[in-house]
Design brief:
This protein has six helices and five strands; from the N terminus they run αββαβαααββα. It is mainly alpha-helical. It folds into two domains: 1-39; 51-183, no CATH class. The protein has a three-stranded antiparallel beta sheet with strand order 3-5-4. Strand 1 (42-45) and strand 2 form a beta hairpin. The protein starts with a helix and ends with a helix.
Length: 186
């Protein structure tokens, strides 16, 4: 019995020391080499500071809406709904989002709504939407803000972020940056 318990206790203590101390400091050191020293990507606008890599809740008709969040945009933790695409509760939630979107965007047909505007991301913190997700909202924002649709489309095109190194991912739009640009639009 001693031959199994003592090595097990030693290994447990060694792993606790490694993962609570050594590993933590290694990751902290690597983060210091990154942009903003591991503190996230910050954006300042109108005297306030925001994290551009965490989704923000925009629900006013004069702004571009973010992707829905399964964690109600709470950056303290992330998580998806953990419900499959055939789950009745999930389907009901998506239908409520579709109905709400159509009420605020009466010029849009249901089949023209991109999935990223009615489904939450796996983390619930996705700060980006697709280009189509932005363009489908232009009509609503034009009416609410008295900015021409052409100017709004130009603003969307100016805020397109290309894939990493031109290879990884898809083109996307950071909703926070787009709405900051929209709020400063003359």
């Amino acid at each position: 019995m001693k031959t199994n318990i003592l090595p097990g206790i030693k290994l447990t203590l060694l792993l606790i020391i490694f993962f609570m101390g050594v590993y933590t400091f290694i990751i902290l050191g690597i983060a210091q080499l990154g942009p903003n020293h591991g503190k996230g990507f910050m954006v300042e606008a109108d005297g306030k500071t925001y994290y551009e890599n965490i989704a923000q809740d925009f629900s006013d008709d004069k702004y571009f809406w973010s992707r829905p969040s399964a964690v109600n945009y709470n950056a303290a933790g992330s998580g998806g709904s953990n419900k499959g695409p055939s789950n009745p509760d999930y389907l009901a939630t998506v239908q409520v989002r579709i109905d709400s979107f159509l009420v605020h965007n009466p010029d849009i047909r249901k089949e023209d709504i991109p999935s990223d505007l009615v489904t939450a991301s796996g983390s619930g913190q996705d700060p980006n939407i697709s280009i189509q997700g932005a363009l489908v909202q232009v009509s609503r924002i034009a009416k609410a803000s008295n900015i021409s649709p052409d100017n709004l489309k130009a603003l969307v095109n100016q805020n397109i972020e290309k894939p990493l190194l031109g290879l990884f991912g898809t083109e996307k739009i950071n909703v926070l940056k787009l709405n900051i640009a929209l709020s400063h639009f003359k």
